[in-house]
């Protein structure tokens, strides 16, 4: 079934306008969620707001929104004030500059959308895709929607424009916040680590090889419970002794990798050695 557009927009750069449709780039499976129940009777529980000062239950129509500007001090904003602060949706993706795609750090990525040409935009759409592909650049700009202003990046992929919603710079924590003690990398350990990487390396990105086994296990367990089966926890697998020495750990990993490779069946067209 063809994907359905979730919104319409116009890419604007210079005097060029490209009408496009936005599509979701993914089809997320519904997460397995659980409801809170009363243990005594099994009825579903309702959430309530309780005043921290006097302990009274507060109805939703008696609540207001406030921002904590200091410890236990709030400034209250009315619904009208909050509405006035919202960014007006323009349905325009305003391109400010074109940057090298390879220079965009991946930690800025937040969400991904696909863009398709809208009526009358086919020619300009194809031109932009090809130009970005040939130059190795991506279009960086802003897009206002749902009361917010988003930083977005447009890049080509398989003849299609991809719009990546990015974090703003002040939303991304610097790597300097992560403490890494000083030390040297020993050449022998580095050589073994590279060898281990090469043994399990793949020249292609194949995400279809992986699946959410936890979600499948949870759903299978729920089906068993619905059918009245008793569920028991599996015994934890024995992990064996811990290898403290890094060189020994690398050597053991390489040995395991060799053993796994030997157990694999020979590929078609090749004779097993």
Written overview of the protein:
The protein is extended and about 65 Å long. Helix content is 24%, strand content 27%. Helix 3 (187-199) packs parallel to helix 5. It has a domain at 7-26 and 86-171: Ku70, Chain: A, Domain 2, CATH 2.40.290.10. It has a seven-stranded mixed barrel with strand order 1-2-8-11-10-9-7. The chain has helices at 79-85, 122-135, 187-199, 213-226, 246-263; strands spanning 7-13, 16-24, 49-50, 57-58, 65-70, 73-77, 92-100, 109-117, 137-145, 148-157, 160-166. With 273 residues, the chain is α+β, with helices and mostly antiparallel strands. The chain starts with 6 loop residues before the first strand and ends in a 10-residue tail after the last helix.
